[in-house]
């Protein structure tokens, strides 16, 4: 197989993995928002985390399962011998494509439920307040499901605070990812458990920070479904969003991810033992968000 075909297959794996992850994650948000399933924040977070783990297991052997542009950027900047920068654009395109397809799938599956929810709550799609239905696609601060979409709710979380939360949360995620896939980290006997622990990290971060920003940590996860929402009628509520805040879910993670990886490299990694010989542990568990 030539190099071009290899990259195509790798990008296909990234797109499929991102699709699976975003479908499960945004799907459970849609279920929580639109139905009487009665899912708590912790249950939504746990299902999101499980979706991340499943997507990594399904695709890591082919692409490394970044599934997140900010993770891709962190590896390109800090692990160039493992992930060359020339692949960034291809990975980002694949991740965005997978996320858009997941957004389309969720919109198609839940379309009638969305109409019912809008009618019951007297929401006009694309008008102020329709963040309450758009929140299953893109993300908003503070969480409209918790605090509503009233103008005064915006005073709880300023744009700079939301950007800080998204950056810090992504930094924590990438810090853990770098620790879990480091061959020198003897605290994890086999890397086959890494996807489970990465999913658990996502679960914890969502459970803590979702009331503030809905806990994105992933530009593709937010922007892909947000594009779908824009063309499905939410227009300016989707892009640029209230307070023109959609950029927070892109810029925050892209800054936070390399900082989290750099913190691991400068603070934790120098204290590890020499590299554990390949073959004495499992394959790298992949990465996400």
Walk me through this protein's architecture:
The protein has helices at residues 3-34, 41-63, 69-78, 88-120, 131-134, 144-147, 159-180, 194-213, 219-234, 248-268. It has 289 residues and is mainly α. Helix 7 packs antiparallel against helix 8 (194-213) and helix 9 packs antiparallel against helix 10. Residues 280-285 have low confidence and may be disordered. It contains ten helices and no strands. The protein has a single domain, classed as Glycerol uptake facilitator protein (Up-down Bundle). Helices cover 64% and strands 0% of the residues. The two termini are 30 Å apart.
Features of this protein?
mainly alpha; globular; Glycerol uptake facilitator protein; 289 residues
Rg from alpha-carbon coordinates: 19 Å
Please count the beta strands (DSSP E, at least 2 residues each): 0
Name of the CATH homologous superfamily: Glycerol uptake facilitator protein
Q: How many helix segments? A: 10
């Amino acid at each position: 197989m030539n190099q071009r075909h290899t990259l195509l297959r790798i990008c296909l794996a990234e797109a499929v993995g991102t699709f699976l992850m975003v479908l499960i994650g945004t799907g459970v948000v849609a279920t929580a928002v639109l139905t009487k399933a009665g899912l708590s924040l912790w249950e939504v977070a746990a299902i999101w985390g499980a979706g991340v783990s499943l997507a990594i297991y399904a695709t890591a052997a082919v692409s490394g399962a970044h599934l997140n542009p900010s993770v891709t950027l962190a590896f390109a900047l800090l692990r160039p011998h493992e992930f060359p920068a020339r692949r960034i654009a291809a990975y980002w395109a694949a991740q965005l494509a997978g996320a858009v397809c997941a957004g389309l799938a969720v919109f198609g599956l839940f379309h009638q439920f969305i109409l019912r929810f809008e009618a019951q709550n007297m929401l006009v799609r694309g008008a102020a307040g329709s963040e309450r239905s758009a929140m299953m696609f893109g993300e908003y601060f503070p969480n409209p499901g918790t605090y509503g979409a009233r103008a005064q709710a915006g005073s709880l979380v300023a744009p700079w605070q939301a950007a800080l939360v998204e950056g810090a949360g992504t930094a924590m995620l990438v810090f853990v990812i770098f620790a879990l896939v480091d061959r020198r980290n003897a605290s994890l006997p086999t890397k086959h458990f890494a996807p489970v622990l990465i999913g658990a990290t996502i679960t914890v971060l969502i459970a803590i920070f979702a009331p503030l920003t809905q806990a994105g940590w992933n530009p593709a996860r937010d922007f892909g479904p947000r594009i779908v929402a824009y063309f499905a009628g939410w227009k300016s509520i989707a892009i640029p969003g209230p307070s023109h805040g959609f950029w927070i879910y892109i810029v925050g993670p892209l800054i936070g991810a390399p900082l989290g990886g750099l913190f691991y490299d400068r603070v934790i990694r120098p204290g590890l033992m020499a590299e554990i010989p390949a073959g004495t542990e499992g394959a790298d568990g992949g990465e996400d968000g």
